[in-house]
């Protein structure tokens, strides 16, 4: 799966591949021509990937073949045991969770999971969690606190499910309860945005000490299409909305909403998941090392101050405002 802006790169790669095949089949020496094309490819990749627009990053985050929580878990952790159900209603497959080891340190893992094909997308409700998903997440978080396990969450959702049955079972209360409880958990909490992170659906498992974000992910209260429909009465203005909303990783890092921008492999995480996992691993390692050195009171205070300071800005000199 590819995007329109990547087409020149894909066509040039195809041309190089065909030329290499032709050289081998006909026993010809075309190394000089191939070297020139490869050099041209490098320049083209730099030109395109270093000038990606905000909406193009949104498109990358939505790719069907973009790595999911379940793709990263076996590359980052060992002995993962998935746990199911909220003990109130049922098991929401849009949120997965369980216990594992990170470099021999027991941890609790929670993540939103979208489908990687049509059948799985339906099974996972396209990554839109129901209330029972957030209640399952909270159950696992309280268990992690009981056994003193750090919590690592993976954020990848376009939002909580807004359907009738979700409202009937208390989606707003479930998310609000998670925000309240997570703010006071006595264990380190680390969140990593690996794709989309929209609205309360994302925030419901990301009230964390540290929030990290992959380079081609986005984090916002609303999607660019929905914002465009409100502001300009036309979702076709999503490209403009994505730019104005400052929702990409570089933007939210500059605004102080996230702690670390994790670089992606060339073209996006889907091009080399193993290498991408190594980049995430180093971020988790440094984050855990820092947080495990804090006392319980310091952990809670650090988390409080982090979210209290989000949204603070200055107008003029020495005039702080916060919302």
TrEMBL record:
Coarse class of the protein's main subcellular location: cytoplasm
A molecular function (GO) term: acetyl-CoA carboxylase activity
Signal peptide bounds: none
Keywords: ATP-binding, Cytoplasm, Fatty acid biosynthesis, Fatty acid metabolism, Ligase, Lipid biosynthesis, Lipid metabolism, Nucleotide-binding, Transferase
Cellular compartment(s): Cytoplasm
EC number of the protein: 2.1.3.15
UniProt catalytic activity: N(6)-carboxybiotinyl-L-lysyl-[protein] + acetyl-CoA = N(6)-biotinyl-L-lysyl-[protein] + malonyl-CoA
Domain of life, per lineage: Bacteria
Plastid keyword on record: no
Keyword Phosphoprotein assigned: no
SUPFAM superfamilies in the cross-refs: ClpP/crotonase
General function of this protein: Component of the acetyl coenzyme A carboxylase (ACC) complex. First, biotin carboxylase catalyzes the carboxylation of biotin on its carrier protein (BCCP) and then the CO(2) group is transferred by the carboxyltransferase to acetyl-CoA to form malonyl-CoA.
Family to which this protein belongs: Belongs to the AccA family.
Name assigned to this protein: Acetyl-coenzyme A carboxylase carboxyl transferase subunit alpha
């Amino acid at each position: 799966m590819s995007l329109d802006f990547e087409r020149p790169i894909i066509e040039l790669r195809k041309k190089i591949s065909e030329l290499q095949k032709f050289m081998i089949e006909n026993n010809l020496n075309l190394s000089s021509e191939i070297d020139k094309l490869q050099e041209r490819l490098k320049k083209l990749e730099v030109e395109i990937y270093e000038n990606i627009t905000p909406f193009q990053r949104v498109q990358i985050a939505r790719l069907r073949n973009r790595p999911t929580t379940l793709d990263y878990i076996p590359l980052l952790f060992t002995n993962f045991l998935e746990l199911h159900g909220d003990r109130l209603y049922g098991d929401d497959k849009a949120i997965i969770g369980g216990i594992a080891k990170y470099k021999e340190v027991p941890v609790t893992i929670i993540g939103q999971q979208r489908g990687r094909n049509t059948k799985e997308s339906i099974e996972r409700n396209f990554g839109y969690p129901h209330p029972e998903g957030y209640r399952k997440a909270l159950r696992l978080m309280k268990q992690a606190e009981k056994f003193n396990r750090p919590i690592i969450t993976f954020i990848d959702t376009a939002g909580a499910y807004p359907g009738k049955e979700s409202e009937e079972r208390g989606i707003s209360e479930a998310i609000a309860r998670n925000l309240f409880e997570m703010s006071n958990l006595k264990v380190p909490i680390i969140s990593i945005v690996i794709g989309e992170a929209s609205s309360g659906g994302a925030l419901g498992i990301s009230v964390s000490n540290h929030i990290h974000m992959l380079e081609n992910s986005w984090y916002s209260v609303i999607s660019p299409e929905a914002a465009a429909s409100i502001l300009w009465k036309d979702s076709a203005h999503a490209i403009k909305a994505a730019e104005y909303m400052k929702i990409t990783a570089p933007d939210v890092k500059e605004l102080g909403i996230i702690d670390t921008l994790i670089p992606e492999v060339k073209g996006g995480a889907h091009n080399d998941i193993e290498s991408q996992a190594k980049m995430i691993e180093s971020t988790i390692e440094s984050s855990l090392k820092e947080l495990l050195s804090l006392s319980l009171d310091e952990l809670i205070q650090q988390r409080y101050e982090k979210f209290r300071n989000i949204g603070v800005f200055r107008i003029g000199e020495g005039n702080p405002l916060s919302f």
